[in-house]
Design brief:
Number of strands: 18
Shape: globular
Oligomer: single chain
Largest sheet: 6 strands, mixed
Structural class: alpha/beta
Strand content: 15-25%
Distance between the termini: 34 Å
CATH topology of the largest domain: Rossmann fold
CATH architecture of the largest domain: 3-Layer(aba) Sandwich
CATH class of the largest domain: Alpha Beta
Number of domains: 2
């Protein structure tokens, strides 16, 4: 593992098909005038899955990484008995991202956001002196904080004050990780705005990039790689809850690579993704047949985001309509966007723990509820191969008997804060 050779790939603009070289941190095609994602085209067309000692990097053939960082864990896929029997599904496979030692799942932040963080940070240069900036509603921040702390990578996190309870850790973090927050009442979009202010200082800070970062998407895509390489074929259905839809886009891209590989079947994988009501901007647009999101007033969006159990699903500016975004992914796979209420998700979480023996995060409960709902409507054949992406779980089990440490914000900024003040204060944090 010490003699790792960086993964070979080029980039392709989804809108135009233009192929070009990565400058090391390309987030878009500079020659493209249309809003579009770019994708990695890997030199290795047939994936060779490495041994478990590689952790997440067992899938590094299809991850745009320069280096392998310590501490990673891969998603674990297993065939369901309990939930499958309850639903009458013969081939329900659960891809578990979290802490569940009984099945070999050891993500200590208990979230699949670790797949993003290890991939993105593995793409960074070891000699990079600038500070990586990440905005998050909670789980992503926890994952990046863990990875950057353990591997000495300088990181600035921006998180809403109302979500700071997500910033728990098994042990204190290294000083290279700093946290700022937007004032109470703010949401994920406000945290993004705050991070954008810090990024005005381009000499010392650089953006992680969110959905535009191929490393983030291809890290998340390892959930589908785990499923397909365990099952031996591409699933027929993929269920996941979505806030930005980035994980579902990644799943679509992974399925296309697996089709091209040739060893996992040629079937399309139908994306079945769900939002948590009442925060459902993508669901509303999808039901209206619109590539563009419908108008959503800031105050209503903040209020709706405060109501939902799955706070991590409250992205107001998701990569929905751009080329290669969630709208295209749903159209290409004949997929659907569903909606789940808090009570439905809570009931699904209780059922999952009863039948599968492990607690799950609210977002994973939304995904589970959407599966239950879809099966109840008779939309899935009982012999279909179904993948349920449990994006977070085992937190209750991980925390049991442990003394936790919480990362506190160095500064809490009002929603109407002065950008120059943000630049000045965050610069001082890393002076």
């Amino acid at each position: 593992m010490e003699n790792f050779t960086p993964t070979a790939y080029t980039l392709e603009c989804v809108a135009t098909g233009r192929e070009f070289e990565d400058d090391g941190w390309s987030l878009a095609d500079p020659a493209c005038e249309t809003p579009s994602l770019v994708r990695a085209r890997y030199a290795c067309r047939q994936i060779e899955v490495r041994s478990d000692e590689y952790g997440l990097y067992k899938f590094c053939d299809w991850m745009p990484v320069r280096r392998l960082l310590k501490g990673s864990a891969a998603p674990v896929t297993y065939r369901s008995k309990g939930l499958a029997g309850h639903l009458g599904l013969e081939n329900l496979w659960i891809t578990f991202n979290g802490y569940h030692p009984a099945i070999g799942a050891r993500m200590t932040t208990c979230s699949f956001k670790e797949t993003e963080a290890y991939s993105v940070c593995g793409r960074t240069r070891a000699e990079e002196k600038r500070v990586l900036v990440v905005a998050s509603a909670g789980n992503t921040a926890r994952a990046f904080a863990k990875v950057c702390s353990e591997n000495g990578i300088r990181l600035l996190l921006a998180v809403p004050s109302d979500n700071l309870d997500a910033m728990w850790f098994a042990e204190p973090l290294a000083d290279c990780v700093k946290l700022i927050a937007c004032a109470p009442g703010g949401d994920y979009f406000d945290a993004i705005r705050l991070s954008d202010m810090a990024l005005k200082d381009r000499e010392h800070f650089y953006a992680e990039g969110g959905a535009k970062n191929i490393a983030r998407r291809d890290g998340m895509a390892t959930t589908v790689l785990s499923a397909a390489t365990t099952i031996g074929r591409i699933p027929d259905y993929y269920f996941q809850a979505v806030g930005s839809g980035t994980g579902a886009i990644a799943a679509w891209e992974a399925a296309q690579r697996l089709q091209a590989d040739g060893r996992f079947g040629t079937n399309g994988m139908k994306l079945m993704v769900a939002q948590n009501a009442p925060f459902v901007p993508m669901y509303d647009a999808w039901r209206a047949g619109s590539r563009k999101l419908l108008p959503y007033a800031d105050d209503k969006a903040r209020r709706d985001a405060a109501i939902i159990d799955a706070k991590v699903l409250s992205n107001r500016k998701p990569p929905y309509g751009l080329a290669g975004g969630l709208y295209d992914a749903l159209k290409a796979t004949d997929g659907d966007l569903l909606v789940v209420t808090n009570p439905q998700a809570r009931k699904a979480a209780r059922l999952f723990e009863e039948l599968e023996g492990i607690d799950i995060h609210p977002a994973a409960a939304v995904a589970t509820a959407s599966l239950i709902k879809t099966v109840g409507e008779g939309r899935i054949a009982k012999d279909a191969t179904v993948m349920l992406n449990i994006t977070g779980g085992g937190e209750k089990r991980f925390k049991a008997g442990r003394e936790l440490w919480h990362l506190r914000p160095s500064h809490v900024f009002p929603l109407d804060t002065d950008p120059d003040e943000v630049v000045e204060k965050v610069a001082a944090l890393f002076a």
